[in-house]
Amino acid sequence: MSDQIKQQPPAGTGRISRPRTELLTIGTGNGSPTAAIGQALGGSVRRLFGRHTPWLDKAAFVLVGVLIILAFVGPLIAPYDPSVTNSALSLKAPDAAHWLGTDELGRDVLSRILAGAGLTLLSATAIVLFATFIGVLVASIATLLPRWAEEIIMRACDIFMSIPGLVLALGIAAALGPSMQSIIIAMIVASWPSTARLTRGILRETMTNSFVESARILGMSRLRLMLRHALPNSLDAIYVQASMEISGTIVMISGLAFLGVGAPPPSPDWGSMIAQGQQYITTAWWISLFPGLAITTGAIAFGLVGDAVRALADPTSRRG
Amino acid sequence: MVKFVLRRIGLAVLSLWGVATIVFLMTKLIPGDPARVAAGRLATAEQVEHLRTALGLDQPLLTQYLGFMARLVQGDLGTSVTTRQSVVTDLAAVLPTTIQLVIVGMLFTALIAAPLGITAAVNEGKASDVAARIIMVLAGGVPVFWLAIMTRWVLGSILGWFPISGTNSVGMAPPNVTGFTVLDSLLFGNIGNVWDSVTHLILPALTLSAPFVATLSRIIRSNMMTAMKSDYITFAVSKGVPRGRIIMRHAFRSSLGSVLTIFGMQFGWMISAAVLVEAVFGLPGIGTYLYKAILNQDTFSVLAAVFVIGSVFIITSVIVDFLQMIIDPRVRRAQVGAA
Questions:
Q1: Is B86 helix (H, G, I), strand (E, B) or coil?
Q2: Which of A160, A310, B98, B227 is most buried, with most CB under 10 Å away?
Q3: Which positions in chain A touch B19 (Cβ < 8 Å)?
């Protein structure tokens, strides 16, 4: 048994850890966890703006940064009040005063898009964070449980996943009644099972590493093994997964809002704006066009960042 | 083989039961009085009480659950507040429209994604690869309902190339036999009807295919790139096999494995995306039904439609698995071995 341990290099040395696990090895190092996180993030940022990163990825990161700032300061820099109606200004085409025109109630489209940025982007981020948290929790517990219990939990996830996410979320949001909270709750419920599935896969893969095996042979308890080794060494893959989810979540939130299960009318969220503008499309195309461009921009920027994060973490998976 | 088929069907039944349970739990999420919601806003107090007894909402939870399952097995999904008809009758009438849309959408997806992915892969790094990848990124990020509104406006309203809504022009609808307008038109035997039905389908199906083209073409591109670098391609090149033949016969065919799996799964996802596209184009499918039910706060019809979509998704995934087993001997051996 001791021979077996000697044959394997100790945890964290370059030979067995693949490129992916070298990015964030939080908790396994000797320093404090916060220092490890700081070091890892510093490394990523350096690598991100280093010369090996494609310019498109850099542009996407900058764009996402701008979008996140807009999400917070959007309502402050909006030129007009997004909810004040003025029938005299109804359906005005884009001009110098109203860059993106006005809607049927005379509200400034640009101001509404800016006011809605936070609603869409922060909700999407919150959904992904919560769903990832629940998914990781469930997957970790399932991995610790006996084989049959793990099987039952994973089957339950499969059943949740057998209803397409949009439809599942639509049903839950419709049952809860139209509001932004409904969409957020519905999306979390609809998306944690796939996170749990993916996380379980990641955990299992980490568990096959020889340093985990060595720790197990040395008599470490399953719980400790999970908390000290399996989970910390899976975190980078979990982050990558989460960053790739945001883009789709943005599109799905707006789809649900478009179908009418989102916040009731005065709310400036992008999906509802498109829905309201739909009937005026032939005369006042700007009401629907611009919020849609905003969603597309957000989705593509976050999507590219997700791909870039994956590529940074695992150069061998350079996207196709 | 038989064992595998039975196992797969057993799993599907288990999933159906699970979906039914999830839908039952959703009815418990409704705030306030569910009987009031089931009866609709215009119902009298008497009707609400009647429905409460009929649905067993005054019974303990377990009895409610068993009653719900019993009604479901008998094909009773309740009565729509909006149409005053059985939800099953309503849904049976609209489902063919959705399935027809999804099938044509799948066809467009394959027809667009394959050339896009192949072109990008064989010209890796060149201008056409970059162009193809820009198309992939755009198609993947654009929300399908917004794309539907925009194509309908530009290609339908402004340019007038396509009809903007419905399944047929006034007076051009074929007699309803199967519910699939194209098939019905063919059965009716009038070329004008066929043309009318097809042109009404093109724009919705094309929009619907966009996000799926993005996924599929990316996979085809990366699979093809791997295949093009393999030894057998180098061998074929050195043997002097024509380039077109190498690309299609050798590289593309061998990269189809995971493509077929994804393509099969997309059928289910496409049904949910079709919900959004139908709502825009006013196609009388399950999406428009859902949209109207949400507008009318007809929550029980919404949940019934969710159940039906979930069921269609489960059934198609079983069919896809079986088809794959028939098509690909490698899958057949692997799965029979596992079962």
A1: strand
A2: B98
A3: 159, 162-163
Cβ neighbours of residue A151 under 8 Å, at least 6 residues apart? none
Measured in angstroms, the CA of B320 and the nearest CA of chain A are apart by 14
Which of A35-44, A121-130, A209-218, B45-54 is least confident? A35-44
Task: Report the pLDDT averaged over residues A226-236.
Answer: 84
Closest residue in A to B304 (Cα–Cα)? A171
Q: How confident is the model at residue A46 (pLDDT cuts 50, 70, 90)?
A: low
Residue of A163, A174, A251 lying closest to B302 (CB–CB): A174
Residues in chain A: 320
CB contact under 8 A, A176 and B31: yes
Question: Which of the pair, A83 or A297, is modelled with greater confidence?
Answer: A297
Give CA angle at A41 (A38, A46), nearest 5°.
120
Cα separation, A24 vs A309, whole angstroms: 12
Partners of residue B290 in chain A, C-beta under 8 Å: 170, 259
Distance CA B212, CA A268 (A): 29
pLDDT number for residue A137: 93
Q: How confident is the model at residue A9 (pLDDT cuts 50, 70, 90)?
A: very low
Please say whether the beta carbons of B181 and B200 come within 8 A.
yes
**Given an 8 Å threshold on Cβ–Cβ distance, is B145 in contact with A168?**
no
Arithmetic mean of pLDDT over chain B: 82
Q: Which of B316, B309, B314, B313 minimizes the C-alpha distance to B23? A: B309
Residue A246 CA to residue A225 CA, distance in Å, equals 30
d(CA B217, CA B262): 11
Q: Do B30 and A175 count as a contact with CB atoms less than 8 A apart?
A: yes
Contacts of B271 in chain A (CB under 8 A): 164, 167
* A313: its two tokens: 């973490």
pLDDT at A184: 93
Contact by Cβ (8 Å): B231, B239: no
d(C-alpha B97, C-alpha B94), whole Å: 6
CB distance B306–A171 less than 8 Å? Answer: yes
Of B141, B306, B317, the CB nearest to A247: B141
* Cβ atoms of residues A197 and A133 within 8 Å: no
Asked if B143 and A278 come within 8 Å (Cβ–Cβ), the reply is no
| Interchain proximity B31–A177, CB inside 8 Å | yes
Q: Give the 3-state secondary structure of residue A130.
A: helix
Residue B178: both structure tokens together: 């199967």
Cβ of B279 within 8 Å of Cβ of A259? The answer is yes
Using CA coordinates, name the residue in chain B closest to A254: B143
Token pair, residue B274, equals: 């079709």
Assess A201–B contact: CB distance below 8 Å, yes or no. Answer: no
Q: Is the pTM of this model over 0.90?
A: no
What is the phi/psi pair of residue A108, to 5°? -75, 120
Give the pLDDT mean for B96-118. 90
Most A CBs within 10 A among B146, B152, B218, B270, hence the mutation to make, goes to B146
Q: Are B225 and B196 spatial neighbours (Cβ–Cβ below 8 Å)?
A: no
What b/e readout covers A126-162, taking b as 16+ CB neighbours within 10 angstroms?
ebbebbbebbbebbbebbbeeeeebeebbebbbbbbb
Of the pLDDT bands very low, low, confident and very high (cuts 50, 70, 90), residue A40 is low
How far apart, in whole angstroms, are the C-alpha atoms of residue A82 and residue A17?
Answer: 52
